[in-house]
Amino acid sequence: MSRSNPPSFDRRSVPEGAKELIWHAPDGWEIRQFEWLQTGADSRGSVLFMTGRADFYEKYLETFNDFHAEGWNVTSPDWRGQGGSGRCGPHEHVGHIEDFSIWVDDLTAFYRQWKKDHPAPHIVIGHSMGGHIVARALTEQRIHPDAVILSAPMLAPAGGGMPEWAAHLVAKLFCAFGRAKRRAWKVSEKPLEPEVLRQGLLTHDAARYSDEFFWFKERPFVRLGPGSWRWVERAYSSARRLRDRQRLEAVDAPVFVLATAIDELVDNATIERAVHLMPHAEIKIFGPECAHEIYREVDHVRNAALQASFEFLDRVAPPLNRNT
Question: Could you list the residue range(s) of the whole structural domain that residue 248 is in?
């Protein structure tokens, strides 16, 4: 199989051999988990894939297949409050969280158990908000994987045309006025600019974009809409924590970042600064051919992203106990 031309895959079916499980967080919260292990005695290693805001693991089955075909065990839990892991607020389709530290704690506990139960090397991949939480856990020395890949990481949200301090202030005011658990925007994925069409922000691939709506119909419980005002306010607050220069410089894991210059959901200047400060970080930046969901883009873009990801892992996390 050519890495740049993977075989066709049914994105609308959980692959045979994969398991859908429940993991219990330390406080008892039920976290839905996807698990796809290698069937042979040897594996390339293990990948923990953390999805983005409002995501659910079905959206990334195709990417899981790409990594599984390379010999990796693949695990992906839904974040607390998303997908099949319940909701943290009163509104079924509003993504609410009281503080991002809750997710950092969940990831820390899950990673500890996952690392114990899965063969090395241990790779953590985080997309968008998932990349933010992974970066928090890294910079706070809560997890120590062998390598990390961040896809369009939301190290800071895009400001929607206004300074970050102003956007944060707006979110604080809405929370103070009793709207903390109410939705912060309507249609798109861009707070403060609700009329922007959602697909244009996420991917140029209409078929892959439509997969999400197939799963909404097939499994209605995975559907989640806009984030709450508290989510927005806490996102800006958490982003400030990620700007800590000393913490970024102390990250000792190899980090590979995929980003796109036209991303309207995350702040690219913050991403590039973080890459510059982390001692073992590198970045691949796409142009206007690539929107926010890099692993769900049109074939030539996502194939390039996968190829770069695999080559990075070959360099920094070579197979263990395998004859060369």
Answer: 19-316
